[in-house]
Specification:
The complex is a heterodimer of chains A (377) and B (78). Chain A has 377 residues and is an alpha/beta fold. Chain A has 14 helices and nine strands. Chain A is globular, with a radius of gyration of 20 Å. The N terminus and C terminus of chain A are likely disordered. Chain B has a three-stranded antiparallel beta sheet, with helices on one face. The interface between A and B is medium-sized, with 25 and 18 residues.
């Protein structure tokens, strides 16, 4: 088996190697775990085609290599093909992150021709009822159909199924379905608790027992399937005792551009409403990355307080996630409470304990921003 | 996708959600993997360029091609 190169290291030499464009916040689905902002559904001052192209060119000059077209639902933008073509011509590896709703065979063919390299399709479950329950829309059959078309056209495909209490019992069936479709990668990422998912946390968080059972099922499937499919199973940081090395550190390798041109160190950072993130309509992208106050705030480790400051693991996890620290403790420069060394760790352990009690609160669907599917041709 | 990336001064491989930055020799070896060259061509090319014995280079090239095959970066065409 391959041994060389197994020591993974993430380092972009200071360049934003991974660029994520959130083309729109609009989406035909109403997923209860959606990571989009909860108050910006009606945002209508989206960047124009030319403005997006400028972002794509500027980021390329700054060393971006991987580009993700995301949303909302990026296929709602009619200029998606044009933007993919621009990125591909510049030498980016182009990724589309989609719910599949809004994709047609014709559009898939056009995207292929435009130079799209990879599609990440989001699914909710292995069957129609939980799919409907989680996404708020009856869309299972349509997703399966489009998944098969994606494979027929020869795209490499990642099937992404966010895992929560509502679908965790279906993990074996989800793996079977992915194998049947013929996807190369299946990502069973446990829902992370931001925005809509944070609102619905009590309903969505699985118990430790459910997680351990699902993990064992994944390990068994890996042995059975061998090289045919790569299976990722990401345990939520609430259960790990250590925070995730979020974005490989603030302003380290990643930048997100939101639909209105706001530039963020990650797509969740907008939840830090005390920060005034710069916008490509007012400032040069390179200046934003290299010079702006917002991108410098938590870059490196000089901002760290205890227990991070003196911690030997600070170069591994960078103190965890700034957004999570802010959302749960009210101060983004605190240690991520997912860390057991954090003085606020009880916020996490209490939420986990709560997951063991059956919840009586209803699941709240992402509501505004809903796009009438029947109105689209 | 395999290509030269000027901003990193290196060859890179890009795939869904991942980038591998290759060191100089790895990049040089994969640059030969275009369906037109044989292992002998790679060894000959690198022997000319680097100060090492042909047998050492042959061994290193073979090892790296095995790794690349294991990772799905290259396919065997003949």
């Amino acid at each position: 088996m391959a041994k060389v190169g197994s020591k993974l290291r993430l380092d972009g030499n200071g360049a934003p190697i991974w660029l994520l464009l959130e083309l729109t916040y609009k989406c035909p689905l109403k997923c209860a775990f959606c990571s989009n902002p909860t108050d910006l559904d009606d945002l209508d001052n989206e960047l124009s085609t030319d403005e997006w192209k400028q972002v794509i060119r500027d980021a390329k000059n700054m060393g971006s290599m991987q580009i993700g077209f995301s949303g909302g639902e990026p296929t709602l933008r009619k200029d998606l093909e044009e933007l993919v073509e621009e990125a591909n011509n510049l030498g980016y590896y182009t990724n589309l992150i989609t719910s599949g709703i809004g994709l047609t065979i014709k559009r898939l063919e056009r995207l292929k021709k435009a130079g799209l390299r990879h599609i990440q399709l989001g699914m909710q479950s292995s069957e129609p009822m939980t799919t409907h329950w989680l996404s708020g829309v009856d869309c299972f059959d349509k997703k399966i159909k489009i998944a098969k078309e994606i494979k027929r056209l020869g795209f490499p495909m990642v099937l992404n199924v966010p895992i929560s209490k509502i679908n965790i019992h279906l993990v074996p069936q989800i793996i079977e379905l992915a194998a049947e479709i013929g996807v190369e990668y299946l990502e069973l990422a446990n829902v992370q608790y931001y925005n809509w998912a944070l609102i619905n946390r009590e309903q969505l968080m699985p118990t430790q027992e459910e997680l351990l059972k699902a993990e064992a099922q994944v390990i068994a499937a890996r042995q059975r399937l061998g090289d045919k499919m790569t299976l990722f199973f990401v345990i939520p940081d609430y259960f790990e005792g250590r925070p995730k090395a979020c974005m490989n550190g603030w302003g380290s390798i990643h930048l997100t551009v939101a639909p209105d041109g706001t530039v963020l160190p990650c797509s969740q950072a907008r939840s830090m409403q005390h920060l005034n993130f710069p916008n490509v309509r007012n400032q040069d992208l390179s200046w934003i990355w290299h010079k702006s106050n917002e991108f410098h705030l938590y870059r490196g480790d000089s901002w760290m307080k205890e227990p991070c400051r003196s911690c030997s693991e600070k170069t591994t996890d960078f103190g965890g996630c700034r957004c999570q620290a802010f959302l749960l403790t009210g101060d983004a420069s605190n240690t991520d409470p997912a860390c057991s060394k954090s003085p606020h760790h009880s916020l996490i352990t209490d939420a986990v304990k709560q997951a063991n009690n059956s919840s009586k609160t209803p699941l709240i669907a992402r509501e505004a921003g809903w796009v009438d599917l029947s109105a689209q041709s | 996708m395999f290509r030269w990336e000027p901003s990193q001064d290196a060859y890179v491989i890009m795939y869904p959600e991942g980038i591998v930055k290759l060191n100089q020799t790895a990049g040089e070896i994969l640059n030969y993997c275009d369906g037109q060259h044989y292992i002998g061509d790679i060894v000959a090319g690198l022997t000319e360029k680097f100060d090492a014995s042909e047998s050492f280079i042959f061994e290193q090239v073979n090892d790296f091609l095995e790794v690349s095959y294991g990772k799905g970066w290259i396919k065997i065409t003949s």
